[in-house]
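Fold this sequence, please.
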Amino acid sequence: MSQDALRGCLSGEHVVLEPLQEEHIPALSIAVSDGELWNLWYTSAPHPDEMKAYVEQALASEQRGEALAFAVRDRRSGQIVGCTRLMSWDQTHRRIEIGHTWYAKGAQRTGINSECKLLLLTYAFETLDVIAVEFRTHWHNQRSREAITRLGAKQDGVLRNHRILKDGTIRDTVVYSIIASEWPSVKQNLKFRMRQYQDNQ
């Protein structure tokens, strides 16, 4: 993945997506402890003791040109509340995936995810000029599936027996996407949802 324009932050009204650095490890360890996200077997959130290796793996993937990881900072509190990643950029076929996303329990259902996705999708469609953005999640991660659907993504299919997880269970992966022709209406919907969150605060 080309890093030229991506090394800066992606900033919204409520969140800042900061290029992931090792300096984020302590704050991310605190964030992932809010809700003990690693205990949700269908997510990929790391245990605090694994955060250093998690960040190092993300940065190594970035160095190989495969991804760009962000730490998510809540503007209101100033706290790091999660992580997300642009990944699997297929420049030939102009597709990219948004994944490795998790948020502290206190940041869930607050509008933070909507604005993060608005920032990433805007960058993907309007700067990288992709024609499709993909999302993947565990079949059993109902909260993630509902959140992806609320974005306006459509289900493409299910990859059965797709991944063997570290606990030995086998994951069926649900694949969703937003395509370029859908982006204007998805963008409008995300902005509308952000206004609703603001009105309710």
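The radius of gyration is 16 Å. Strands lie at 10-11, 15-19, 67-74, 80-90, 95-103, 132-138, 154-164, 170-179.
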